[in-house]
Amino acid sequence: MSEERTYWEGRLSDAYSLDGVGWQGLGEPFNRWMYRVRRRLFLSRLRPLVEGRAPDVLDVGSGTGFYVERWLELGAGSVTGSDLTETAVGRLGERFPALDFHRLDLSEPGARVDGRDFDAISAMDVLFHITDDAKYERAIANLAAMLRPGGLLVLTENFVHGEPLRSERQVSRTLATIEGLVRAQGLEVVERRPVFFLMNGPADSDSRVLRSTWGLTTRALTRRPALGGVVGPLLYPVELALASTVREGPSTEMMVLRRSRR
Ligand SMILES: C[S@@+](CC[C@H](N)C(=O)[O-])C[C@H]1O[C@@H](n2cnc3c(N)ncnc32)[C@H](O)[C@@H]1O
Fold first, then answer.
1. What is the CATH number of domain 3-259?
2. What is the pTM of this model?
3. I need a surface site. Which of 133, 140, 143, 251 has the fewest CB within 10 A?
């Protein structure tokens, strides 16, 4: 078993919850509010692109199935889920018995789901966990290969403008690097919009204020996770207001791409 898989199997079997797949250690209440922001923005940005089309969808790195549920809400014709871990695939099969789930390491050469292709694919908070650059490039190629011509890919990344940020489990690559890789696979950027401003780490910002505010927030929530039930609802409307007006965010952003028809 790969080292990455061992890590994710352990992490998800210790906490198969929004805290396990979200910002680990900040507690379920704050993570639930983060996921409320994600839900609102995912639905409002994807609805105009897929409504009435009943797309065949693949979700990659499904975790607890948060985006599987969102695609069902959007009226997908079929939803197939996948994850690196047997832990997630087993739990997802119990939670959504009518859907198909596959164990898939997106970064492996030629990774596919039963040789199928899809109208839309989501890879949400997954790609920055692929720390090896060659594997990352392969993951992008695999995503493009599973899309039908004209199909949509939606992903989240930090798209940093400065130097890439590397840690043991996460690499925030630059906007330029990611744009280069997706274009090389025949994917055109439809839109890139912020998801978080104050409720997630400011990976793409030098602002001392943002960095120290986030530092204080994470320290407080780590000590007292219940505070998330107070801080979350206060920040939620602020995040949504900023996300609908500001074009460049300091943190995670959502990118929608389309595979060219050629
Ligand atoms: C941060 S969680 C996000 C889960 C879900 N997409 C969400 O947003 O709630 C990352 C997920 O990606 C999965 N994952 C990590 N590396 C992967 C890979 N190379 N191929 C497929 N899935 C992977 C993990 O097992 C985990 O479930």
1. 3.40.50.150
2. 0.97
3. 133
